[in-house]
Write a structure and sequence with these properties.
By secondary structure, this protein is α/β, with parallel strands linked by helices. It has two domains: 191 residues, Rossmann fold, CATH 3.40.50.620; 97 residues, no CATH class. It has twelve helices and eleven strands. The strands form two sheets. It has a six-stranded antiparallel sheet with strand order 6-7-9-8-10-11. The protein has a five-stranded parallel sheet with strand order 3-2-1-4-5, sandwiched between helices. Helix 1 crosses helix 8 and helix 5 packs across helix 6. 40% of the residues are buried.
């Protein structure tokens, strides 16, 4: 009987190698890619797609090259609780890496029976990531996910206890590896030997939650809004624009380019918006209910980032509850801006 495995496949170097190593041992492999909504690389590629009109997920590209099917599974709404209430805490920013891994592997475990799979493959490397890939943490994640001895990590398998796939003879342990640490030189050498030339570039910081600026915005949101009031849409808006805290009850987000303006439009239902009139400029959306003096300040900030930043005044359209009002404001002095910036 052909043995089947599920692989957590990002399309990066490590997960691509892990699948290739196992597939070359005659195992049938199916890829799964969990979309949390916080992939930095995916976000940037989506905004760049307008250059050629083409956008393909890295995991799908990797699966095509490896000759395996890949399922993209959206877990973004469910992931909200993992992000806001991590049992094992955050890393250096707001990355709940241990809880994230447990959550994904639990989902993978639930898929095993449905897909008739016998074990799970990951591209994890011992000691590569400081929070989630120390030996003891890997064991903890296995236990918490209910997958003890059923997770095969081909790149570091010889540094870890024997798994059930190896014990049962489905996998030859001698053809696995003993890679550890943060250097990717061993993986790059393997990729060259195996003829793997295309993969998303190996690098840390591919998640918004590890980004320092995103973390500042996240902490500001928690402080002023409270965890219990945070929505998925609130978190989506942290990814784009310039963020300014006008008061305890009012925050604004100013688009930086056409793509971000379109993004902000998509998530601005029910929110107050400011737009320039007659000249190019940003969309500014408001999280909160600004009082009169704050309305003029927000309009002045919007004008500052428009093509009329050097004019005596700029026309700004205020849109609230489908009603509009035209304001004439002087662009804000840039020296006054930093005290509001998040």
């Amino acid at each position: 009987m052909k043995i089947k495995a599920l692989a957590l496949l990002s399309g990066g170097l490590d997960s691509t190698l892990a699948v290739k190593i196992v597939k070359d041992q005659g195992i049938q492999v199916e890829g799964i890619n969990f979309s949390t909504g916080f992939c930095l690389n995916l976000h940037h590629k989506f905004f760049r797609k307008s250059k050629n009109g083409i956008f393909i997920n890295d995991a799908l590209k990797s699966g095509e090259r490896l000759g395996i099917p890949v399922d993209i599974i959206d877990i973004s709404k469910e992931y909200l609780d993992v992000l806001l209430n991590p049992k094992y805490g955050y890393g250096s920013n707001v990355n709940p890496c241990i809880d994230c891994r447990i959550f994904m592997l639990k989902r993978a475990k639930n898929l095993m029976q449905e897909k008739d799979a016998s074990f799970i493959i990951t591209g994890e490397v011992v000691s590569q990531r400081p929070m989630s890939q120390f030996r003891q943490t890997l064991f903890l994640i296995e236990k918490e996910s209910g997958l003890k001895r059923l997770i095969l990590r081909p790149l570091s398998a010889k540094l870890l206890p024997e798994t059930i796939p190896e014990e049962n003879g489905w996998i030859n342990r001698d053809k696995l590896y003993d890679i550890s640490g943060r250097s990717r030189k061993h993986q790059l050498r393997l990729a060259n030997e195996m003829g793997i030339k295309c993969f998303s570039q190996p690098a840390g910081g591919c998640c918004f939650l590890t980004d320092q600026n995103f973390a500042k915005r996240f902490k500001d949101l928690i402080r002023y809004k409270g965890k219990e009031n945070i929505t998925f849409e609130n978190l989506n808006l942290l990814k784009v624009g310039r963020h300014f805290r006008i008061s305890d009850k009012t925050k604004i987000i100013v688009g930086r380019d056409e793509g971000e303006n379109m993004y902000l439009e998509c998530f601005s239902d029910g929110l107050i918006k400011f737009k320039t009139v007659d000249i190019a400029g940003p969309i500014t959306i408001v999280d909160g209910t600004p009082v009169n003096e704050e309305i003029n300040l927000i309009a002045a900030i919007t004008a500052l980032y428009s093509d009329g930043k050097n004019e005596n005044y700029v026309k700004i359209e205020l849109i609230k509850n489908e009603k509009t009002e035209i304001l004439k404001v002087k662009p804000l002095d840039r020296n006054l801006l930093d005290k509001f910036r998040i």
